[in-house]
Every structure is written in structure tokens, then in C-alpha cells.
Design a protein that fits this description.
It is built from twelve helices and nine strands. By secondary structure, it is of the alpha/beta class. The chain has a single domain, classed as TIM Barrel (Alpha-Beta Barrel), CATH 3.20.20.70. It has a nine-stranded parallel beta sheet. Helix 2 crosses helix 4, helix 4 runs parallel beside helix 6 and helix 11 packs antiparallel against helix 12. It starts with a helix and ends in a 5-residue tail after the last helix.
């Protein structure tokens, strides 16, 4: 069993919801990369989505685009990101780490070499935004052979054909994008509830919802219908709102407030009345 599936099974058994922060690797400063990951894990992250810097992050809004530009200026690349996960694994062998990014850095390294190095470092999953499912069967096979879960995106605009393709290929969890636009917008809670319920009726995979989640209120609303809450833009904003030396602590404190809210709402509700 993978770290990802093990994590979701454990959470489901206790009635809890997964909390998955996204951070751009090396932001705000490459010297703080490991500290950020550690603080997230220590403050309630059930998995970490680690963004691989890329010059044209087409699905991302201004905050994440700024983060990408900032770390690229520090010459952070895919090998740096893999190396940080390798270091993280020396002290944390349980928190799943998913690399999220775009095809270009992977293709430049070579798919086989990337997957070999990712598996050796302890990376558990990949989200490659511009690998469409209809062209990803070879990548999926190669990733699964190394114990890496290929995770795919679904969105409000996904066709029935695209949904079927994703459900046939994905493992780990499904990432449902709550917005029709880029990261950082406002989500429609009723629409998310309808669409996530429709997807859940067709798969046993957990569903995580991201884009537009920025506080405890929106996190709890999404968690009413989803198995995981994914927070990206707000994490980047917290990291950039102050001195780089204290960015990791700020991120940990913010994430801790979301963790507490989710556990108060869902773990408490799952306990028997006489517990």
C-alpha cells in the first residue's frame, strides 16, 4: 500500500478529512525549503504538494506565478526539488509528498530518469498539469511500476469522456479543480458539492478539492463533500507576507488553524456520543 492510500484509509477510519497544502518548492527562499516542508508536516499536513518551478505555469494565478518567478531567479530546478524530498525523508517517512508541475522539466530530464530519481527520493505521486490522460498511459504505467501514484485533474469543464479517462488511469486521489479559471479565485460551493458527488459515485478513489480555498470556513465547506482539502494560493500568500526567515513558522501556524477547524468539525462528529 502506498503512503497516499494508507493516509486516506487511516483518516477515513477516524472520520477525519485530509489537509493537503501546496507550496512552490524553494519559496520564498531556497534555504527555507526544508523548513517549510517540516513545519507543514508538524502542523497537520496529511500530504504535501510540492510545486516544481516552471516559467509558464498556465493553470496558476498571480501569486503562484510570482512564486515560480522568484525561485527560478534563484536557479531552483527539478533536481533541487527531488533533493529536498530526499532530505525530508531522512526524518519523515510517513507524510506523502506529491510533485505538482508541468511536463517540460520532466521531459528535459527524461521520463525514466525522473521517475527513477523520484522513487528513490521517496516521492509518492505526481500531478503533471499538461499531461492529458488520453496521452498519458505510458507515463502512468511507468510511474505505477515504481510505486508512484499518477494523480490527475478534473474540473467543472471536464467532459464525460475526460472523466472516464481520468478515472481509468488515476491512483492516489483525484484532484478536483473547483474553478473554471486559474488558481486563487472564488469557488461556488453548491456547484462543487454537485460535481464532487457525481464523481464520487463513479470511483472509490478519494477526491481532493483545490483552488479557491483560503480559510477555515471554505475548507470546512469543501470537506463536507470531499475527502481532502487542498490549499495553494493562500499558502503562497502566507509565505510571502513577511520575512523569509519566519516564513515556515507562518505557514505552519496558518495550516494549524485549518487543521484544528477540520478536526473539530469532522473528527468530533465521527466520535460516538458516549466516547
Amino acid at each position: 500500500m502506498s503512503r497516499i492510500s494508507d493516509t486516506f484509509e487511516r483518516l477515513a477510519a477516524s472520520g477525519r478529512k485530509a489537509l493537503i497544502p501546496y507550496v512552490t518548492a524553494g519559496f520564498p527562499e531556497r534555504s527555507e525549503a526544508l523548513a517549510v516542508m517540516r513545519e507543514l508536516a508538524h502542523n497537520g499536513a496529511d500530504a504535501i504538494e510540492l510545486g516544481v518551478p516552471f516559467s509558464d505555469p498556465m493553470a496558476d494565478g498571480p501569486a503562484i506565478q510570482r512564486a515560480n518567478e522568484h525561485v527560478l531567479a534563484q536557479r531552483v530546478g527539478l533536481r533541487d526539488v527531488i533533493g529536498w524530498v530526499r532530505e525530508f525523508r531522512r526524518e519523515d517517512d510517513t507524510t506523502p509528498v506529491v510533485l505538482m508541475g508541468y511536463a517540460n522539466p520532466i521531459e528535459r530530464m527524461g521520463v525514466d530518469r525522473f521517475l527513477d530519481e523520484a522513487a528513490a527520493a521517496g516521492i509518492d505521486g505526481t500531478i503533471v498539469v499538461d499531461y492529458p490522460p488520453e496521452e498519458s498511459s505510458d507515463f502512468v504505467e511507468l510511474a505505477r511500476a515504481r510505486g508512484i501514484d499518477p494523480i490527475f485533474l478534473l474540473a467543472p469543464t471536464s467532459t464525460e469522456e475526460r472523466i472516464e479517462q481520468v478515472l481509468a488511469l488515476a491512483s492516489g486521489y483525484i484532484y478536483y479543480v473547483s474553478l473554471k479559471g486559474i488558481t486563487g479565485g472564488n469557488l461556488d460551493r453548491d456547484d462543487v458539492a454537485r460535481r464532487v458527488a457525481a464523481i464520487k459515485s463513479r470511483t472509490a478513489l478519494p477526491i481532493g478539492v483545490g483552488f479557491g480555498i483560503r480559510d477555515a470556513d471554505t475548507a470546512c465547506a469543501v470537506a463536507e463533500v470531499a475527502d481532502a482539502v487542498i490549499i495553494g494560493t493562500k499558502m503562497i500568500q502566507v509565505l510571502e507576507d513577511g520575512e523569509p526567515a519566519t516564513a515556515a513558522q507562518r505557514a505552519g501556524r496558518f495550516l494549524g488553524t485549518i487543521r484544528q477547524a477540520l478536526d473539530t468539525r469532522f473528527a468530533a462528529a465521527a466520535r460516538p456520543a458516549n466516547a
